[in-house]
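Handout, section B. The chain below has 361 residues.
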Amino acid sequence: MRIVLISGIVFVHIPFDTNSSPFDGAYGLFDWLRVFLRESLFRVGVPCLSAISGYLLFRNGSASIEYGKTIRRKTKTVMLPFFLWNCAFFTFVLTLQYYGIGDGFLPDLSEASPHTLTTLLFAIDGTPINLPLYFLRDLFVCILLSPLLAFLIRRAPLLTLSFLLLLAAWPISIGIVLRNSILFSFSFGIYLSLHRIDVTIMDRYAALIGPVFLALAALLATVAYKAGPGLPLWLEVCRNLMVLVGIPGFWALSALLIRSRVGQGLAATGGLSFWIFCAHYPLLFCLWVLWNRGGSDLYPVFYVLAAALALLLLPLTNGMARNALPSFYNLLTGSRVRPLAATHTVQNRGADDRRVRSEKR
């Protein structure tokens, strides 16, 4: 699921300006497709990823974890990559702006206040300069809160999840996390682990749940396309709820995908998904700067080229960095390189499952 979700997040962050907004409807069906991918379908990516993280943190079904050991490990695998990627992009943008390149696309760092600079660097109370990395910031906060969340979910799961769902649906800031949906979905993942919910039960209904989810995503995109760019409160609440509904929706789609050779190959990509997540926004920024300096106004060409180049160059640079600088690559990806034996296990799992089903028949 991670590689598919993170590849989808690339489409969420393809840049545009007021002259190329999808809500203008200048390109008809193409603009609707942009809204569908950006505002609906792949908005579920971050909540899904946080639900997976909460589930795996308590995958042994115990309400307690080795807190100190966990925090030390997550500092290395979550916060260290955050600082490395974000500070590198900050320095890169500062250098470009010094030479007058990229002005207007990101805040002017030379004239920014200390508070703005601190926020862009460390995401204390706002998004970092490498925008998608806010997820790593919020994820680490959720991990810090995990003993409290586990206690509440163990004692009062319905009340706790209902309260967090209300916070996630209503567009308000609670100051602890930048996206309330991350706090809810992380807690939902904890709930699935602590109460030993067999999530594979949904697999038998995947052929039904998956299309229903896609239909709901298309309906939301259609309404948002007509109402946007400024969404009314009721529609924003519906979108926030739809993002959370997408967690089982995408699980169902992944249950269908993993049965294929393509799905099994994607499941064995190791640190590639994390590399794409951290590197795609700087790459898209560079492509946007180059495109605007070229002077072309045909935005659909840029959109298609940006998506294609990102999904081509990111795996390429991932392989180059992994082979040329393996130690530094491990730091950048939080030591997420999958051992060879584990890779073979994932690749063979689909064949094993098919053999078991055949024997049962």
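Note. The radius of gyration is 21 Å. Compare this with the example in section A.
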